[in-house]
Amino acid sequence: MIEKNLVSVIIPIYQTEKYLWHCVESVMSQSYKNIEIILVDDGSTDRSPDICDNLARMDERVKVIHQENGGISSARNAGLQNANGDYVTFLDSDDFVHRHFIKYLLYLCVKHGAQLAACGLYSGSGGDFEGISMKGSASVYSGKEALLSRRVKSGVVGKLYLRELFEGLAFPVSDHFNYEDEALIYKLLYRCEQVAITNKPLYYYFQNPISTTRKANHYKPTDFYEVLQERIQFFSDKDKELYEYSYEYLCLNLMLFYFTCKRDEENTNDLEELLWQYEIVYFKVLYNEVTPLKYKLMFTAFYQFPEPCALIANKAGLPLKKRYEHFKSKEKRLR
Q: Could you give the CA distance from residue 298 to residue 311 in angstroms, rounded to a whole number?
């Protein structure tokens, strides 16, 4: 591949001195070399700022931004404002990527004329990709089809974006809001003519069992509910199928939040309020045309028997559980 496209890699950083070097090294050693690495130090008080400056001295592709603590959205926005690349990708500072992460996703974008490419995400506590199968196929969708496919994860990491997609958009900055990925990803997908998705696990979500950032955070479903209500409003006058699917997505998330709350012994959320919100959304989904029958049956079973469903789901371990554990462990990391 001719390396004519500059790729900006944006890494927000807060108190991750133990993992930062490995994270950035995985980017510096990418097989695709035409990159700029933007390290946004979000007011860290550990050794992270010094590590950032040392990395910049080692590699001229590394740029460092030091700012007062403003949260992950503020840090990502600062990275976007200073990005010069044709494409942009985001990486959390305690995660790392396969050496062909950028090369392969860029290949998919160029080959298929895609504005966004997404890869599989591997969760583990190891230090490299040794022993992880890199087999996987790729599929191409329109932006709408990608949303309706239910294959695109809501997080912004593990994806490569045409930078033009972000024109006029920014991550929402708030002193209480934790789901900035969810608030933006559907708008980016909706802008895409083509989206390429591969299940190759090229992004490594590092899980350190003793890290303080992995301790349980008792988050509020009201934050997520607010974001997904905005999503419903966004599609209300644009596309009927995506409007109906947004209700399905909210219904699914409320159900999974309930499961998580029942699993959490220290939960302080009002579960009766959560079920009341679910009931309102459930009847919207029950009569829409885009939701498959199997989903409607699942939602109906939960509506009728929420506690037994939660007990069964938590004992069995839902396939979607990992995604919500990802949100739970990452929230407030850059606060």
A: 14
Of 40, 239, 198, the closest CA to residue 105 belongs to 198
Q: Output Rg (C-alpha) for the chain, integer angstroms.
A: 20
Encode pLDDT of 8-31 as tens digits: 999 999 999 999 999 999 999 999
131: left (phi over 0), alpha (psi -120 to 50) or beta: left
In the numeric block, which tokens belong to residue 31? 């097989």
Same domain, 194 and 323: no
319 Cβ neighbours under 8 A, 6+ residues apart: none
Token duo for residue 162: 């045409």
Token pair 């029950």 is at which residue?
286
Tokens 């070399």: give the residue: 33
By residue range, what is the domain housing residue 125?
7-211
| 98 lies in the same domain as 195 | yes
The residues facing 235 across adjacent strands are none
Query: Same domain, yes or no, for 146 and 31?
Result: yes
Q: Give residue-wise pLDDT tens across range 259-294.
A: 989 988 888 888 999 999 999 999 999 999 999 999
Of 211, 236, 270, the position where a domain reaches its end is: 211
In terms of DSSP bridges, do strands 96-97 and 195-206 run parallel, antiparallel, or are they unpaired? antiparallel
